[in-house]
Design goal:
Shape: globular
Helix content: 25-40%
Structural class: alpha/beta
Order of helices and strands: EHEEHEHEEEHEHHEEEHH
Largest sheet: 9 strands, mixed
Number of helices: 8
Low-confidence stretches: none
């Protein structure tokens, strides 16, 4: 009888109780795609930092012991998916996690959460940027937005990009190690595009822009990419699926008058994700 072991992804990210982002997005989305989601919390928050106030508990010092217990149990993962990392120390911990748990069958899907709209986040120090570039070298797949792609390649940011410039940007990222790259959020007039590059072959996927940017959409997108990767879904097909689903979630949230800070009401349309 053939063994049908369920796929597993270790998701390394923070846990925000309210606001639909990070682990609270990844867990239901990855589970929906029939992959076991195994969280490694980097921090615990009552709600994300886009609100006026929040409770925050840094989990950095607890992470090594948490991870050692997994190693003791001999756990194995088909995917390792790091998301937002709040310090250089956490990047070091993730790097060590990859070295300990990666096998020939394990895919590393990195969402390098570093900035947006041309500006790095406050946590993204020079040391953080340097460590993140090193982490990119471990990744099979990366999902940066344009700002993050610029930070990772020391490229000056600008608002408008020609296709050839995006190709060069992706080429620099590819030189760091990843074989599959999607650069997200490329504004093209009334359209938004994602650039997909896989083993030297590339193309742009674009759709009409809907609404404004909302918290958690990047987590939605990357979680679909991660689950599809371990399920061996074609990369371009996965990017198109993720883009369409995020767009559907944003439109649903607009229709329901969900506040922007509350993220997207993906629960309303999760049944359509497959």
């Amino acid at each position: 009888m053939t063994s049908h072991r369920q796929k597993k992804i270790a998701v390394i990210n923070d846990m925000s109780g309210f606001g639909r982002c990070s682990i609270t997005v990844s867990l239901p989305v990855i589970s929906r795609l029939k992959v076991q989601c195994c969280p490694v919390p980097t921090a615990i928050l009552s709600n994300h930092t886009g609100y006026d106030r929040y409770f925050f508990d840094d989990y950095t010092e607890k992470m090594p012991e948490y991870i050692r217990n997994w190693e003791y149990l001999g756990l194995k993962f088909d995917g390792i998916y790091p998301g937002f990392l709040g310090s250089a120390r956490q990047i070091d911990i993730v790097e060590d996690f990859i070295r300990r748990f990666r096998t020939e069958q394990t895919l590393v899907i990195l969402d390098p959460v570093m900035g947006d709209h041309g500006k790095p986040y406050a946590t993204c120090t020079k040391e953080m940027c340097s460590r993140m570039k090193r982490l990119v070298g471990y990744a099979d797949i990366i999902t940066p937005n344009v700002t993050e792609a610029c930070i990772l390649t020391d490229t000056p940011y600008k608002e408008h990009w020609k296709k050839e410039e995006i190709r060069r940007l992706a080429g620099k990222l590819g030189e760091q190690g990843p074989q599959k790259i999607v650069i997200t959020g490329i504004v093209q007039g009334n359209y938004i595009a994602n650039y997909v590059c896989e083993n030297g072959e590339d193309h742009f996927l674009r759709s009409v822009r809907v609404g404004t940017q909302r918290c958690g959409t990047g987590d939605l997108f990357a979680s679909i990419i991660a689950a599809d990767a371990v399920n061996h879904v074609d990369f371009a097909v996965s990017v198109k699926k993720a883009s369409n689903f995020v767009k559907r979630c944003i439109q649903t949230s607009i229709d329901m008058d969900i506040p922007v800070t509350d993220g997207v009401a993906f629960e309303e349309v999760l049944e359509y994700l497959r």
